Amino acid sequence: MKVWVYGDDINTDMLFPGKYTYTCSEPSEIKPHLLEDLDPDFAKQVRPGDIIFAGRNFGCGSSREQPVVGLKAVGIEAVVAKSFARIFYRAAINQGLLLIESPDAIDTYQPGDKVELDLAKSRIRVAGKDFSFPQLPPEILDIRSAGGLLAYTRNKLASREGKAEG
């Protein structure tokens, strides 16, 4: 697992250039352009299970979903930041992308430090030091497990229909 480190105010155009907004909508079309203006190596080198560490206001800018869809599609385990833009935060919930606010973990991290996430204990370990973060609501974890809000909703509806028939 690699930790990708970025600063404050990483906006949606940095995550996915706006010039592709109307030409790329499928994850396979989005992936090659992720962070291309900020970090040209990201799309080529990112692997499932990698984590992004960032500063304040991550995901600010427009409300396009491509940045979140792309990060989820390449398998980003979580984005850990000092804070998130609200629109990005909501889009991440919709897609099942895990976002964690932990300013102290961000400030502690040094390149090469080992990072571990423990969602059950609401803890992130950086270089052997533990940092807690607010417990994620069960619904958000369920949405993430289902693969996003759409899949979660379909599962809930199917479950209700199954109970009605039985």
Folded structure, characterized:
The chain has helices spanning 12-15, 27-30, 42-45, 66-73, 86-95, 103-108, 138-146, 149-165, and strands at 3-5, 51-54, 78-81, 99-101, 115-118, 123-126, 129-132. With 166 residues, the chain is of the alpha/beta class. It has two domains: 3-135, Aconitase, domain 4; 140-166, no CATH class. Strand 2 (51-54), helix 4 (66-73) and strand 3 (78-81) form a beta-alpha-beta unit.
Task: Please describe the topology of this protein.
Elements: E1 3-5, H1 12-15, H2 27-30, H3 42-45, E2 51-54, H4 66-73, E3 78-81, H5 86-95, E4 99-101, H6 103-108, E5 115-118, E6 123-126, E7 129-132, H7 138-146, H8 149-165
Parallel strand pairs: 1-2, 2-3, 3-4
Antiparallel strand pairs: 5-6, 6-7
Helix pairs in contact: 7-8
CATH class of the largest domain: Alpha Beta
How many E strands? 7
Assign the CATH architecture of the largest domain: Alpha-Beta Barrel
Would you tell me the structural class of the helices and strands?
A: alpha/beta
Report the radius of gyration as a whole number of Å.
16 Å
Q: How many domains?
A: 2
